Amino acid sequence: MGKSKSVPDLASKAMVSWTSEDVKQWLKEHESLNKYTKQLKGTTGKELMKLTDDILTQIGIKNPLHRMQLINTRDDLIAQQEQDAAVKDTDSPIMSKPSSPSPSFVTPQHSPKGKGPILMSSFSRSQLNGTSNSSSSGFSFGDTTLRRSKEGNMVVLDDDGLSVVPMKGVQGKAFSLVEVITEAYGLWKQAYYNASNCEALVSCAAELQGLVLANTSLAARPTLMANLIEAVTEVKEFIATFSERGWLSRLEKVSSDKEEFCRLDRLLISVAVEGGHQSGPEQEYTDDTAELRKQLDALGGMAALQDPETQLLALQDLEQFVSARARAVLASLVAQEVAWRQSSLQTGPHQVIRNPEVRLWWWRSFGSALLQTYGSLGTEEITWERFWSSFPKGLEDETASSVAQVIYNKHTKELFQAAISRGNPNLVTPVELEFSLPRNINLAQQCQILLNWENSYKTLSRGASRMGSGARSTGSTLSAVAEEYRPVVNTLPEVTQLLLGQERHCQGLLDVLQPDQGQGVPQVVSLCGAPGAGKVNIAVMAAETLFSSTLWCNAYFADMERVETGVECAFQFMAAFAVTADTSDTCTLMSWIGRWSAYPIGLIVHCPPDMPARLLKHVTHNVEKMVKTHPLLQVVLCASEPIDIPGLDCVTYELEDLGVDNVAQILTSLAPQIGNRAQELAEACGGRPLAAHMVGTALASGTAQLEEVLQAVASPAVAHLQPLDRCIRYIVSTLPDEFLHALLLLSLFPGSFERRAAAELLGMTTIALSKTRSLLRILTTCNLLQYSSTSERYIMHASVRACCRSLARELGLTYESARVTFIEYYTKYLAKAAALLAAQAPVSAMRLFDREHQNIHAIVRWASQGPPEEALPFYSDILWESMPLLSGRLDLLQREVFCKAVYEQAVEQKDRVAQGRALWQLGSVLGDQGQFKNAEVPLRDALAILESELGSDHLDIAKACNGLAVVLFRLHQYQGAQDLYARAYDIQSSKLGPEDKEVATTMNNTAGLLKAMGKLADAEVVYRTVLDIREKELGPDHVDVAASLNNIAVLLKTSGQFEEAEEMYNRSIAIKEKALGPNHPQVALSLNNLAALLRKMSKGEQAEKLYMRSLSIREEALGPDHPQVAASYVNLAGLLKSENRLMEALPYFNKALDIRERAYGPDHPDVSAAQISLAELLKDLGKFEEAERLCRSAINILEKSVGEDDVNVAAALSLQATCLQGLGKAGEAEPLCRRALHIREQAYGAESPNVATALTALADVLKEMSSFEEAEALARRSLVIRERSFGSDDPLTATSLNNLALLLKDANHLEEAETMCRKCIDIRQRVLGKLEEAESACRQCLDIRERQLGSQHTDTAAAQIGIGAVLLKQGRVDEAKIILSKAATLTFVKLGERHQQSLDAMNWLAECKSTQRNMG
Q1: Is 1326 helix (H, G, I), strand (E, B) or coil?
Q2: Is residue 346 within 8 Å of 832, Cβ to Cβ?
């Protein structure tokens, strides 16, 4: 917005003191606001400041854009007044903190040198994100709004309520004190019980504030002010518990609050005493909590409020103990509390949503009825159609109404969808809502931001491309509009403050990122500096400035601190953009980035100083992929040393030390009492802004003395440390014992952490959490911790953490019990996430994991570092319950090391159950590596151990049986696998019931095994039983029912029941499309299977269309490099190959192999499968050398993964032998064929049809080597096996007949060869109708007769008639007529016109002529 045009007198007069005439004058001075004079008649300045969007709606301003214009114009003037006041009254060399009263942005202008946008002087992250919290310049609660005036404020409480009076000379922390008291007042007014107690505390706090601020000497005492703010903040946070979500269900855990009220009262009195005031008598507090708890217990607990029959009576009994405000709407409040409690207790995807209203809405709409027995994909991935059927009308009444005014038609819905979507654009997940609709926001306002950001960005940037001159718009162009632009929510960390001297570096970084016109814009900037130099702060501030100037439309942050593997690195990049996947394949991320490639965005990557080169390589590789996918992406790499990425335009910007003068100014501004000693102290800080800020804060608060600081940092005992580390060590050492102990414990957290986790670690969960909050707040004030109000998490700077751990080691503190507590806490946390995974909510489970990934990885590392003995049970539980979740986030080596470490601990402690669990997981890891042979041993050992310890009918035994059965299945030990599945079924059905989901899963696996064994009828019975169970439990339209239908259809296809299979596939697709949308990967799977069926039914054109649709869905939903896309390529290529479109198939096979190699690595069994598919095609193209090389590679992979005697190895050996034959190397092919035959005989038995294939291949090689006798014996054996297995009319029998005929012909056994040919022709023509194959056999028969009888023999003519008939049926009339005429002439001459053979020839010729006439 532009600046106000108010006359000087009005502009300089604080809005809080405006009269109604002043407001009227202000409205008239703005043409765009003059139309609101009627609605705002009689409004004073104080009332104007209180106006909200809802109030404006109520007084008749219905257009949301008009309301926004009025509020923005008002806020712009307030911000201008506050900024003028700050310039007039403040002379601080430190830039304002995020809680500064100045506006979110200042007008972007160009620096005097013309080098890019000037750095914002101050900003509020909460305003950027559309949120409201204690750091904003205005505070709204109910009907009261506080704005700072230029003179400073003081809160006054009287009979009329709260008012804010201006006070001259009030500066600094007094602003924060007033804000906290004002917020506490609002929370008291909202309290549902204990309202009188809350009033007493707030009144006491306000009175104490008045006493302190009225005395200039007291207000100037930093320690006193800090203690007062701390005490009032504790009061505020405690009062909040009586109106926030869970206000009623907390009574199940808390029996009384009286003692806490008394403690807080004593805390306030102690501050008064510190200020020299006498302490009066303690306030008498009532205890509504105890009365409510007693009443609730008498009613039977929260259950009484859930039962409609007892609810009304229960509400009547509770009314007398709640506030008047709550009494008026008690039924509604209690209903919300009951639903909130139920949603909190129930496992489901809603758990990841942190916005209370949205979380409760999702649970009510999609979770409460669907997660009782089975997990459901439908509860996590919702089609937009289902979403809009409940949103926003399913929200709470007031919120639903306000959101409905923002999202009210098809266009606004489409805008909302585009802004929210970060994965499959056709679906929405709780994770996307959690990211875009954060906690503590006005939902309607946030929705408005989401709808408007794209149009706002395009308007403000004037459609300019940052790569061209349009990006360098003049300051005057942007000045009128820049403050209106707000980006969509981002993942940038909150910047605590930007110190003097860092502005220069920030401006320099801006100049590098956005250079002068005509200069190239770098793709990557390497921001280098020593630890504590403020790299991340500078980068984030630059990012904020760039999107306020619309040179970026958004910015994101990826933290590589404590990342140890490429898998973790990939997940961190995905988390930075809130793109969640269940594998480390970044193709989903690249797909999302590609969709936004038209908009310039920024990415800040923090690389720790000790990052190994192998991990840095992963970082640079992913950055390179992202930049190439999104040409307008700029990346800032924050690291200690320059980072260069070949192939990208990289620039290095190095941070220099601030210099002694700048550091001295920082110290003086924080602690003016140091005077002329500032230079000396600045030198001791070593030019590090972090050190200067910590020391200055300690001096200002009185916790440190100047001489002590100088002596401590100059001590010989710390001479080996860097200046930053010396300062940190000193500050830590000045803490009281309680805080020092807490800080050392908190250094166990390798990453950020929540308050509840800290309370658990500090042993404070049994007392009020307010003490934990107080402790953490004090450590944050000392700059030993940083707090993010957006994520509500704390983090310790790496340098502070390293110092604390070093100090703990010196003191001999191992904190083993704390480590056990840490491990126990995150074991429970992992179990909660694993439960989501088991409930088919993998995206939500991974989001929970991402929040705590650094802390979870820490406990995995500790397993191999000698953890305390007490930790073993928790590690055992992680292995058994949570490894399905961890498997996706650890690489295979990490998993293997973890399992071995736990196993060694279990052996040492003689914990047999833990040993069995560790061995079972180790076998699973080896199986995931494709090393099935090696996996079998530990899995068998695990089963034996668990059986001996738990008994033969324990549920864990069923799990162990299932795991071993999977490996035996892959090793083709079918009978052993079947026995294990049967045993698992017996245990589960007896313990859980025959219709439990675990039983259904085991049955499903059993059916797949039976299908592989060729027991199709048995497999169908089991599959249909599973279908019946799922239809009964879940209903006919559940996605699990669709999966069962799909499985049955696959089986029916195998058994040749094509029509019923097609019906099953179509039903499965219909269910999935309804539940998941038409473009879900699950739909693509069923389309793919249906296409395979149509291909089998010779409907190639239809099959190709479905394959292409399946491929398109997977590419859009998963990205072009996903393994499922590779599967689509293989299937499509297979179809093209079968239609002899070999050159069209070749690129698809190549793409599939490339994707799998990048996804799995070069030694995975799936890579070998892709190699064999490609080799088959190359062989058909005659490229035998390339094909043979691929076969060798595939065999090498398979021998390592499944063993040298696996049947897959045999198949690859046979293909390699065929390629060698093509190269004329039959001698090299022979031993390969013999080995393949031996493997199949051992695996299947000597009479198996699979052996017949190997016999035929070896016979073909021997024939080429002229070993006709052995070749004939093998061919005859193959024929016998196939006739016995499939019958005399089977196509494979015809193939064996044809092969044997060729062999006999080459051996000159022509008569028998002809007999074999005739049988083959009969099968192919009569039974199969395969005319091309019949033609081939006929020509072979003709060749035999010509060689045996000569070209003029009547039997040779009969063979010619057979060929002619086949050609005619194929529509090849001209060819048929030629060969039939030749046969007829020969037959007439030899046998006469009346002979049957002559008549047959004449009939076929007549049919040729008739066909020609019809065609003509």
Answers
A1: helix
A2: no
pLDDT digits (tens, 9 = 90+) for 1245-1301: 888 777 888 888 888 888 788 887 888 888 788 888 877 766 666 666 667 776 777
1147 pLDDT band, cuts 50/70/90, is: very high
Q: What is the DSSP letter of 1265?
A: T
Q: Which residues contact 1032 (CB under 8 A, 6 or more apart)?
A: 995
CA-CA-CA-CA torsion sign (332, 334, 335, 341): positive
Window from 252-261, 579-588, 1062-1071 with minimum mean pLDDT: 579-588
- With CA atoms as reference, report the closest residue to 1322 among 1279, 1375, 1365: 1365
How many residues appear in the chain? 1416
Q: Phi/psi class of residue 532: alpha, beta or left (left: φ > 0; alpha: ψ in -120 to 50)?
A: left
1118 phi, psi to nearest 5 deg:
-115, -15
Contact indicator for 1257, 1218 with CB cutoff of 8 Å:
yes
Residue type, 1066: N
**Checking DSSP bridges between strand 144-147 and strand 138-141, what pairing results, if any?**
antiparallel
Residue 1384: in which H helix or E strand, if any? helix 1373-1391
In the Cβ-directed half-sphere of 403, how many Cα atoms lie within 13 Å? 23
Say what the pTM is: 0.71
Residue 551 CA, chain-centre distance (Å), reads 28
Q: Is residue 1108 within 8 Å of residue 1087, measured between CB atoms?
A: no
Distances, alpha carbon 672 to alpha carbons 213, 220, 389, 664, 676, in Å: 20, 12, 61, 10, 10
CB 219 within 8 A of CB 209: no
Residue 156 neighbours by CB distance under 10 Å: 15
CB 1285 within 8 A of CB 1245: no
pLDDT digit string, tens, across residues 1002-1035: 998 999 888 888 888 888 899 898 888 888 877 7
Distance CA 436, CA 441 (A): 11
| Cα 418 to Cα 423: distance, rounded to the nearest angstrom | 11
Q: Residues 724, 731: contact at Cβ < 8 Å?
A: no
Residue 796 carries which DSSP code?
-
Using CA atoms, how far residue 1304 sits from 616, 766, 1253, 1255, 1271, in Å, is 66, 90, 18, 16, 10
Separation between Cα atoms, residue 760 and residue 766, nearest integer Å: 9
Structure tokens at 1374: 């001209």
Number of helices and strands in the chain (H, E): 67, 13
The helix/strand/coil state of 752 is: coil
